[in-house]
Structures are given as structure tokens and as C-alpha cells.
Design a protein that fits this description.
By secondary structure, the chain is mainly beta. The protein has one domain. It has one helix and five strands; from the N terminus they run E-E-E-E-E-H. The chain has a three-stranded antiparallel β-sheet, with no helix packed on it. Strand 1 and strand 2 form a beta hairpin. The longest helix is centred in the C-terminal third of the chain and has 9 residues. The chain is flat, with a radius of gyration of 15 Å. The two termini are 27 Å apart. The relative contact order is 0.22. The structure holds zinc ion. Zinc ion (ZN) binds next to helix 1.
Length: 72
């Protein structure tokens, strides 16, 4: 989850990233993390929906470890 603040120039500036998996704030300086975005197509059950999420490295590992086909 990404939170933005609007600056004087009315530009959205990323102010905070929170892991959608565990709710922990992800330091934008130190920790690398996973960011995913998907716009679902017309023929899906989510027609046109835009999903966006962030995962800390721990939550990313928990999810990918359960894949039937492992990451290389
Ligand atoms: Zn997490």
C-alpha cells in the first residue's frame, strides 16, 4: 500500500509504503520490497479493476515458498 502526499507543486510524492501482508511499514531508504500492479481485463471477473500492493521481503518469501512451481 502506498501513501502519497501532495506537495506545493501539487505533485504526488510517495510518503510511506506499508506491507499489505503484515501491515509493517517498509523503510523506503533501507529495505527492498515487492511492488505489484495489475489492471484486470474485460474478460476477467474483475473487469477493469486496478490492483496495487506492496510486500516486505518476509511476506514475499512466505507467498513464493507456497508456489507449486518454485522460483529459480
Ligand atoms: Zn510483510
Amino acid at each position: 500500500m502506498r501513501e502519497y502526499k501532495i506537495t506545493m507543486a501539487e505533485k504526488n510524492v510517495l510518503s510511506r509504503v506499508v506491507c499489505n501482508g503484515c501491515g509493517k511499514e517498509i523503510s523506503m531508504d533501507a529495505a527492498d520490497h515487492f511492488h505489484g500492479e495489475k489492471t484486470w481485463g474485460y474478460f476477467s471477473d474483475k473487469d477493469g479493476r486496478q490492483d496495487c500492493f506492496d510486500l516486505c521481503e518476509e511476506c514475499y518469501d512466505k507467498i513464493t515458498e507456497n508456489f507449486a512451481v518454485k522460483l529459480k
